[in-house]
Please model this.
Amino acid sequence: MKETTPINPESTMASSPTETLPEEFATSRAEEQIAIATQWQLMWWRFRKHKLAMAGSIILILFYIVALTVDFLAYANPYTSEAQRSLMRPQAIHWFDNGKLSPHVYGVTGARDPKTFKRVYVTDLETKISVRLFAKGFEYKWLGFIPCNIHLIGVEDTRAEETLFVLGTDVQGRDLWSRLMYGTQTSLFIGLASVVLSLILGVALGGISGYYGGIIDTIIQRIIEILRSIPTIPLWLGLAAALPGTWSVQQVYLAITLIISLLGWTELARVVRGRFLSLRQEDFVMAARLAGCGQMRIIFRHMVPSFMSHIIAAMTLALPAMIISETSLSFLGLGLRPPAISWGVLLQDAQNIQALAISPWLLIPSIPVIIAVLAFNFVGDGLRDAADPYG
Amino acid sequence: MIAYIVRRLILALLTTWAITVLSFIIIQLPPGDYVTSYIASMSASGVGVTEAEAQALRIQYGLDQPIYIQYLKWMGLIAQGNFGMAIEWGRPVLDVIGDRLTLTVVISVAAIVFTWALALPIGIYSAVKRYSIGDYIATFIGFIGLAIPGFMLALIVMYVGFKYFNANVGGLFSAEMADAPWSWAKFVDMLKHLPIVAIVLGIGGTAQMIRIMRSNLLDELRKPYVMTARARGLPETRVILKYPVRVALNPFISTLGYLFPYVVSGSIIVSMVLSLPTVGPLLLKALIAQDLFLAGTIVLMLGVMTVIGTFISDLLLMWVDPRIRLGKQ
Amino acid sequence: MHSEHKPLLSVRNLKTYFFQDEGTVKAVDGATFDVYPGKTLGVVGESGCGKSVTAQSILRIVDQPGRIVEGEIVLCCAKGTDVELTKLHPNSKEIRAIRGTEIGLVFQEPMTSFSPVHTVGNQIIEAIRLHCGISEREARAKAIETLRQVGIPKPERRIDEYAFELSGGLRQRAMIAVALSCDPRLLIADEPTTALDVTTQAQILDLLRRMQEQRGMAIMLITHNLGVIAEMADDVVVMYLGRVVEQGPVDAIFHSPKHPYTKALLRSIPSIESTPRVELPTISGSIPHPYNRPSGCPFFPRCPECIPGTCDTAEPTPIAVSEEQSVSCFLYPS
Model:
């Protein structure tokens, strides 16, 4: 646009205050712009106006960046444990040293209290350990194949595991920050994988139900209704408990993903069915049928693209439930098992209220859970509103 | 009306059947059968079980027969009120469950009462005063409630109680009342503990209900009958409460059908953290110890309970909505 | 016009705007007209010209974010006192006492205008009890009587039915019964026949006319249907984009329309005498978007008789072309 348009494209999509106001209006550039905009452009224009959804998307992008770069962000090996460092409190990073920018932490020495047998840690104000950016640390393979040993932060001349505890340590003396990074990766990807699995189930069954209608629809609807009226958690607990204890971490990971995805497909199926039912009546579907298109072609070339946006919105809204399910299952000890690291596994340490009272930082892993779930909800709400650009 | 009841009843029976099958699957899933684990636990406690006794047990439970016969046998035993033995406890399952199931119902109902008592007025306020500060605050709190899983909230409540009030906020009874037989004093004691439990358990549902009530009511407020009521000269509060709120209540009542399973599900995990005497911790223990008759029975009972709850909500809906009562969709 | 009578309701320069994020919609933008006792005023215009909002403004039931920003609405009450309705708070006792008793309202959609979970009787009795302060029994008797008057068979039984159990015609009759239950002196009927089939339409119009004769009340009939206007109205107000472009007695409007918009509207009515296979004249273009209304005369972009340089810059004011007819158009010099 060369000149400033007085009307921005969004304004014309707003619903009129009364039903009597006209939908169309005299020729204007804005109208033309809307007429030629693609469905995705329209969605984006609407989505952009939803401030919380925009904030949520930025947060989610950051979350997935974290998930892709965990090894770089973690400075300590998440599995290295040491009883000597059990339950150390988070260290503050001091940014200035004598007025100069020189981030450092103070050394900590631990000793066992002779009376209570508890470990007590004393901050040693004499020892300053400087914290560096892009420090060398433990070796890892980025994305599984690029060998590397650079980390976002680290300490010089000594191993990060022994001196740096930004968020403290757990009972086994493992660095909580680094474990939290790995937990984020696991939990986010389990959520994503489960939602994709339940999407496949939901689209298949919801699609069949909505496309064919009749008796098949009735049967699938009854099944969904039955599944929705069953208290799911005890059932999934039962399924999860039946996983053999001898299974490897990967097998459990896969099985839990499957179990969680069984939980979420009904809502997706409901959305898909609703869309199918309304689209079946549309003229363009009839036109495609009259033109001799096969059923598969009608479904995948004509119908699915027109409700893709709704599916994406429903998926985003289903994800938080998946993340909470994984976290809950693992928290109860029936989901992922150590040595796997996920938000739920990390929170298992916070189960004991006495331990929690002494080491409240064990509750820190709940913060990313809450933020991620909120962000997914905001984005999902924004997408749902934007999915109907003409509505 | 009759058709509606019959349809709902059939669905309730079908759901019950599905739950029995799923519970049976849970009992069957792990390797080995009930008798193997029974023998294992008996010999662990020093009581030997002879081969003949084992065989007799196998025949009693029909373990030597095909799976569907086993299912039918199990159903038959249940019909007679025999839910099997809780291996870990060495007592019949029903004994072990005791009044924990009742307490689960009490807690769930309390949570739902709390949910509705809070969600209704807030939802109405949010819809009527749309885009006001209060609406934004309610929406925000709603989102937070949605984002904090029940167990996490329970943890936070426990932590705050322990750290700042030096009180154990968990449990449903005071320490001295926990094992006492039922009495008025024990009942009062329970009522004192119930609010925190109901809040922790209900807050997630409340957030959802506020959103449902708000959007239902917003839809209704736009309808012409609200304007006609106003045009008749009714006071504004009466216009809102008698008409759109009343209509918006119907879909709200129907949410009870899935609010109930949701709350019962949530109670399992929350009970763990708050150490409540519900079936939750028992189920978890049974699952971890692979005490499958106990676990299967609990899943079955929870399931049947929700079916009954859902059916009651269906009847309630029929009672309040003339469109359903008079057979108009 | 009707100088011998004092108007029952007189609306002067009414402006009702809707304030939205995207801009202000001027739904009613300077409407002026009078309703006389015992007479029928027809308000006609395309959809979106502000007819319904005018009716809602009179009763002060405009929904958020709409607001009356200017003008006055004076109602001559039964006691003989004049009340300025725009000065009242929309929830005040005074305006609530006027709704139902002085002014009754009938809506277009009888189905959605009744609550789906309350019986028809419940909604009539409620209004009667509120305004007349009589017992439940008496109110019920009065409600049944009103239902009988509007021609609902077996009113004793119908009164306990729900709106969805009634047929479309009966529903609209019940709607009229609700509006008439407290004997208003002015009935505002907002598209009362639009949702009905043609025979039922005729019956409802007939009913309205009968009720007017029996009760001597004034009717403000809002419609887009010129046929209904011709049949019912004594006086006509033609609205376009929230403004009154022409008003006068029904004969004058139909036989010597002055405003190009009125002329165009009348031309677009299909007639039995018109030549077959000749395209029916339509008004070119469509109503401008409410955010984007033209400057000058609102009708100039679509007007066949537009005077360039005048119509697109200045706003015309009402000019009396005869004793009873006035028009807002530059074609008629003052």
Observations:
- Residues 198-215 of chain C form the longest helix (18 residues).
- Chain C has two domains: 1-102+184-272, 111-183.
- Chain C has eleven helices and twelve strands.
- Residues 1-102+184-272 of chain C form a domain with the Rossmann fold fold (CATH 3.40.50.300).
